[in-house]
Write a structure and sequence with these properties.
single chain; TIM Barrel; two-stranded antiparallel ribbon; 45% helix
């Protein structure tokens, strides 16, 4: 959906489409500063979410954030913006902030991962305890980190089981990184790889997007659900797992207006219904 129009307008628009959960940026995703919010605005936003039964509200961190940057000033700015983003999430009653793992910027994968982990271990102590950080898998292009499920597992292991950190699976990114979502079998196999790496209980949100680039080419190209290479059968298999009822499933399809939003939402629900039927048939 478009960023313009303000919080209330877009939340009402999402609710009118039938959305039960919404993901937003806390501010401009390409800016270092979050807009100031008065207490009245915070109260009004929380009241509107409750009125429209939108839960959970998911916050996506700004694209600028890179907690694995070897550039001292950039890392400091990233830490400050993440602190403000986590605090903003707590104020709005959002339980989750989604963040890309980042980029090693030429220092090498191992060094980038170690810097990311050490930065998180330090910063986690200052974040609101009621907000959980969700690490989103990436397409794995260039110097980016987090393109494999094993990389996410490594981070979680280093942080420890008590750390308020989970995983947000992005289907388009997983496909771009080489995971197979071309069929129900491929989707189940990919999900088992994810569960084996991080544990099913750590997967706390889904970004359900399609993609039109060949699998494994590391290109992040989101498409409408019915227009990409990930199949309806794969989506049905993904959604047939016994997920918690309040698991947020987010569409990040191209922003082309309400008509396409309605189509994507209807397709997503159809795939979910098909997954339930398929699971029932498999259990007979």
């Amino acid at each position: 959906m478009p960023l313009k129009g303000g919080f209330a307008r877009n939340i009402r628009r999402a609710a009118a489409l039938g959305c039960r959960t919404v993901q937003i940026f806390a501010g401009n995703p390409t800016a270092w500063q979050l807009p100031a919010l008065r207490q009245k605005e915070i109260d009004e936003r929380r009241s509107l979410l409750a009125e429209l039964d939108i839960y959970p509200l998911v916050i996506h961190a700004a694209y600028l954030v890179n907690l694995s940057s070897s550039r001292e000033n950039f890392l400091k700015s990233s830490c400050r913006l993440m602190q403000e983003t986590m605090e903003r999430a707590a104020l709005l009653g959002s339980p989750y902030v989604v963040m890309h793992v980042g980029s090693h910027g030429g220092q090498g994968f191992a060094a980038g991962m170690e810097l990311f982990v050490s930065t998180l271990l330090r910063e986690l102590e200052n974040w609101p305890p009621e907000v959980t950080l969700l690490l989103e898998n990436t397409a794995g292009a260039g110097s980016s980190l987090g393109g494999s499920f094993e990389a996410l597992a490594y981070i979680l292991e280093k942080l420890g089981p008590a750390a308020p950190v989970g995983v947000c699976l992005d289907t388009a990114h997983a496909w771009a990184a080489g995971y197979d979502f071309s069929s129900a079998h491929g989707a189940r196999s990919s999900m088992e790889q994810l569960f084996k790496a991080v544990g099913r209980e750590k997967v706390l949100a889904l970004h359900v997007n399609n993609v039109n680039a060949p699998r494994g080419n590391h290109k992040d190209r989101h498409m409408h659900l019915r227009e990409g290479l990930i199949t309806p059968a794969a989506y049905a298999a993904l959604l047939s797992y016994p997920w918690p009822e309040d698991l947020p499933v987010i569409l990040e399809t191209p922003e082309m207006g309400s008509d396409w939003d309605a189509v994507n939402l209807a397709d997503l629900r159809a795939y979910a219904d098909a997954g339930v039927v398929e699971e029932e048939e498999r259990s007979i």
